[in-house]
Amino acid sequence: MKQISAIIEKIKTINIAGDIAQEVKGIDSDSRNIKPGYMFIAVKGTTVDGHKFIDKAIELGATAIVCEDMPETQREGVTYIAVADSQLALGQIASAWYNYPSSKLKLVGVTGTNGKTTIATLLYKMFKIFGEKVGLLSTVCNYVGDKAVPSTHTTPDPISLNSLLNDMVEEGCTYAFMEVSSHSADQKRIGGLEFDGGIFTNLTRDHMDYHKTVDAYLKAKKSFFDSLSKKAFAITNADDKTGAVMLQNCKAKKSEYSLKSVAEFKGKIIESRIDGTTLQINNREVETLFVGKFNAYNLLAVYGAACLLGREPEEVLTVISMLIPVSGRFQTISKGGVTAIVDYAHTPDAITNVLQSITEVIRGKGEIISVIGAGGNRDKGKRPIMAQEASKLSSQLILTSDNPRDEEPEQIIADMKEGLSASQLKKCLAITDRREAIRLAIRLAKPGDVVLVAGKGHEDYQEIKGVKHHFDDREEIEKAFEEII
Fold first, then answer.
1. Which fold has domain 2-97?
2. Mean pLDDT, rounded, of the chain
3. 393 alpha-carbon distance from chain centroid
């Protein structure tokens, strides 16, 4: 239990009606979860306005209401707190409720279109090797020390987020690394958190179903860097044109990493192989198990962030040589001279990056067979672009289902085909059943060829009409290898 006064002490309030000395037993922004003695935060969300449920929350026992619009009729015994932005207030309240856990950790956020999961996870693994107790908040899985906590969103809601951070503090964690999605920044889910560092990867088209414009998407990412304090660091990709934009109003200590231009953390690819890359970082060579230019950028970001967190360059490079790829991120499976690669690439830029990396490695000595789909109920505008980009660098393209959700997979595939020219359509096959698409790709492959299965990566399910069915690209590839090769 906490006094209302303690919960709202760092919040800018507009009006208060009632007793702020009384204690509340819990907090929630979902009226359905309210219990006697709770504080209800009425948030104006993207689809539902929580203000409509204030009366219901009070009927269920709420004794404190945080809102933007004060109700005309106020109930006796209920404390009302008016704020300018209840979305922001929710994060601040959640942070206060859990005793400001982010202030007790070295918290680093990673944002950008691609690379968030890889960078956050590798930093988590690196600092564990350094002997630290570490937390991770990511798309694949959350970790409180060594304990895995399944994740449902790239960035959880503010209450769940602060609860996890508090668990990390209680577990004795000293560092935490988290993915910061554009949705979470826009919806102020990270409001009230104290970050020690921010990392920017790149920005290309994604989530247009939510943000509507690339500019709005960019501003959501930028708001994270705008919120960093002078005590924090901000490290961005100098080779991405939006890297400098992220730093425009940023108060944190600014750094950059690059493969092409002058930067504090400068890299160069010495040799690319299907099983790894020889990378030069600040004039020191390191052998890595990661493939492709995009992974070189990821490793530069990891190196830079670790150094900015006080680690010596030599020990950082030593650990980089020990790290292994993140599940579902350029994960290779080989048999009989055929290599299959599972990758989470689900944007046009990510598809291009992965295929360019494969092209650089095989150097024309084999063909690339790509299996890709696009998710249903998401940005439809990127579907034809994804197919077009995949076709450019593939000898054979197989369009299939991803997570169709509530859409018909045949329509999604038809949308993708719209991006293909007559000549590209000649080397394109459409197979709705993802399992059969993968099997055909393996059957078509010859020794020296590479099969790319993109879009789902670490996911072990396929979502169809609201139901999640078990489906793991890696398992399907292994089964196909056993039966065909």
1. 3.40.1390
2. 94
3. 26
